[in-house]
TrEMBL record:
Domain of life: Eukaryota
Keywords attached to this entry: Glycoprotein, Signal, Zymogen
Protein name as catalogued: Carboxypeptidase
Aminoacyl-tRNA synthetase found in the keyword field: no
GO molecular function: acyltransferase activity, transferring groups other than amino-acyl groups; serine-type carboxypeptidase activity
Organism whose genome encodes this protein: Hordeum vulgare subsp. vulgare (Domesticated barley)
Family, per entry: Belongs to the peptidase S10 family.
Length: 466
């Protein structure tokens, strides 16, 4: 399908969705205290639901943290978490938000939270959204309401933003950006395009979209998958001989082998990659906190007495694993006190999971490159960043699709610095497109390189050179 035809189809779907009345949204909850956090919150937190589709009873849940600096003037950022089907709370507690867990051994009680000193809310107001529907605390009353995909969920986010800004008109004049990592990076440009089209049509409210930022973004399988083999070679995971065999037999296609020799060498590559964590080649292999029956007697006892009734809990990783915080979030989120503090509607989401990979999802957008091209050539700012130790979406693949846009280089490849050290490398292109690496960063770079990502975002949002 051509991009022009695709755009017409999407525009038609957008008009169809916008013609539907939204479900009524309940009043937001102002949260001043949270269970497990010592004292009042040192930032302004609001939570709530916004109805985006009456037919299915779909309501999206959000966390809004007001800028801790100058909320009247600072940018407003919509932050989406990847997966798809992962909760926006991941962004708040593990990526760019003002909370983080105390990584103490879980004893069956309530996990503790502390303030994150490098929260992006020091420079922007942030909406953390549970999207697509049925992620986190977002829900649909109709049985088929959770069955969405790239296009339909992006349209729901567009409806959410229209409704949210209608109720929060004091932020309409603030610069607005959309951001996200991993799979969220694929739909961010699509959502930005919806907002841009609404602005062109002068639909109300007129959102002051200025640009978007994406980290290690899923973009196009032609690029994302094909650079895993050369990246694995660069990381020293596969040998020169294996890499040469792949180049000789696969004819540049490392995703769809067309002969036996290629298939065999790719199986060898896959086996070797399985020895490491592809989301960050420096990490130790850990349980990824996927659903598993609870086998801890103390945890069972406490769940029955203090928590909502649950059927599953994540597998327990070692405390020195990066996934241990994910494990703690399950118990904190499924605590009744937490639910009450956040204003969660009873009977909507029985069991909160950070990621709900068992739910259906249509991966129906083949590539986001046309949207990147369309937005940047029309003047919207774009920051694309890559944790340089990611093998899921290697920085090589991201550089390659950016080069395919054929933009001229404005500021050539150089190091950018933090505290007198190189924090990564960056290049600036025409049409306000900046690419940067995060030295030592993984697939979700703000998780393991928070200071570097904070500095990057702070400079970029302020229109300063990295």
């Amino acid at each position: 399908m051509s991009f022009g035809l695709l755009r017409l189809v999407v525009s038609g779907l957008l008009l169809l969705l916008l013609s539907r009345p939204a479900a009524s949204a309940s009043a937001p909850t102002v949260v001043t205290h949270l269970p497990g956090f010592d004292g009042p919150l040192p930032f302004s937190l609001e939570t709530g639901y916004v109805g985006v589709e009456e037919e299915t009873g779909t309501e999206l849940f959000y966390y809004f943290v007001e800028s801790e600096q100058s909320p009247g003037a600072d940018p407003v950022l919509l932050w989406l978490t990847g997966g798809p089907r992962c909760s926006g709370f991941s962004g708040l507690a593990f990526e760019v938000g003002p909370l983080k867990y105390v990584l103490a051994p879980y004893d069956g009680g309530l996990p503790q939270l502390v303030y994150n000193p490098v929260s992006w809310t020091k420079m922007a107001s942030i909406i953390f959204l549970d999207s697509p529907v049925c992620s986190g605390f977002s829900y649909a009353r109709a049985p088929n309401g959770c069955d969405v995909g790239d296009y339909s969920s992006s349209l729901q986010v567009q409806r959410f933003l229209n409704e949210w800004f209608t109720d929060h008109r004091q932020y309409l004049s603030n610069p607005f950006y959309i951001g996200g990592d991993s799979y969220a990076g694929k739909v961010v440009p699509l959502i930005a395009q919806h907002i841009s089209q609404g602005t062109e049509r002068r639909q109300q409210p007129v959102i002051n979209l200025k640009g978007y930022l994406v980290g290690n973004p899923i973009t196009d399988p032609k690029f994302d998958g094909n650079f895993r083999v050369p990246a694995a070679h660069g990381f020293g995971i596969i040998s020169d001989q294996i890499y040469e065999a792949a180049m000789q037999n696969c004819n540049g296609d490392y995703v769809n082998p067309t002969n036996r020799m290629c298939a065999e060498v790719l199986q060898t590559v896959k086996s070797l990659i399985s020895e490491i964590v592809d989301a960050n080649v420096l990490d130790k292999k850990c349980v990824f906190s996927m659903p598993k029956p609870i086998d801890n007697v103390t945890a069972r006892k406490n769940l029955l007495e203090e928590f909502i009734e649950l059927n599953e809990a994540p597998a327990r990783p070692n405390i020195d694993c990066t996934t241990y915080g994910f494990y703690l979030s399950y118990f904190w989120m499924n605590n009744k006190m937490t639910r009450d503090a956040l204003g969660i509607k009873q009977g909507t989401v029985i069991e909160w999971k950070r990621c709900k990979r068992e739910l259906p999802y249509k991966y129906d957008m083949p590539s986001s490159i046309p949207y990147h091209l369309n937005l940047t050539t029309r003047g919207y700012r774009a920051l694309v960043y890559s944790g340089d130790h990611d093998l899921v979406v290697p920085q090589l693949s991201t550089q390659a699709w950016i080069r395919s846009l054929n933009f001229s280089v404005v500021n050539d490849w150089r190091a950018w610095h933090l505290d007198g050290q190189a924090a990564g490398f960056t290049i600036a292109y025409a049409n306000n497109l900046t690419f940067t690496t995060i030295k030592g960063g993984g697939h979700v770079a703000p998780e393991n390189r928070p200071k570097e990502c904070f500095a990057m975002a702070q400079r970029w949002l302020a229109n300063k050179s990295l």
